[in-house]
Here is the input.
Amino acid sequence: MIIDFPGGARVDAHFAGFTIPTDQPPTGGGEGSAPTPFLTFLSTIGTCAGIYVLGFCRQRGIPTDGIRLVQRMGMNPMSGLVSDVEVTIELPETFPAKYVDAVVRAADQCAVKKHFEHPPVIRVNSVLGAGGRSGEQVA
Here is the structure.
């Protein structure tokens, strides 16, 4: 993954032929041309759960018309950090009742959720000069 600075307050991620743009709102010095990095991060919870719901439905031939996921976040007022995330799978009345609990179990398998439950170690370092190939300095 390569992260660069295309101008203004934008910070974009490039990988596998894709570009994920991010920006800050005008109140944060940006143009609001893309979601913030933090909102992009939070959206991965619901979209990942959605992939599992989609796969569940496809495997059983269940139409996804009328299905949507709603994600809500609670904030800790003291720290300003997200304290809890709730993803609700809204199902139409036509959804087979025998699969209501199973679709929740499918969404629970989301890889992003599993990484929250068992977070990786994240290291940040810097490299000075030569296109990042020498002079590594650990920050």
In short: The beta strands are 2-7, 10-15, 18-20, 68-75, 82-90, 126-127, 136-137. The domain at 36-127 is CATH 3.30.300.20 (GMP Synthetase; Chain A, domain 3). Helices lie at 37-60, 100-107, 111-117. The first strand starts at residue 2 and ends at 7.
